[in-house]
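Per reviewer request, we include the raw input and output of the structure prediction for the construct analysed in the revised manuscript.
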Amino acid sequence: MKVLNLFLICFIVANCVAFGQLNDEMKIRQLEKHWTELLDKGDTTSLLEIWSENYVVNNPNGKIVTPKEIVALMKSGHKFPAVERIIEKITFNQDIAIVMGKELQQPGSMTPNHDDWMPRRFTNVWIKTKEGWKLAARQSTQVVSQ
């Protein structure tokens, strides 16, 4: 009987952990979509709420930038090109979520044809805080065909 009880407790704990991680994964997927929409709208106030205090980006041009620089760029009238993000993997390590995948960035010609969009690889790092998930770091690199 004790073995059966121990088995049931382990089963319940494992299910709770798996369910919690599934909820976190759904939340991260929602946040990935949401912060991209905020970037498209130029909503710097809401972006600053999603980004962690020490958010840092290694952008496709190889420059490391901070929220202060990104917000200044946006307030100067810069509009980021449309991006379609395809999440390939989300990995959780305690209170850290690492999101990896590919992106397609609309070129300057603004063509709606996705075949002409520029491919990139990305990594986004989210941290779980008391206030919820915050985007802590991002890296994006344009894929160069050989």
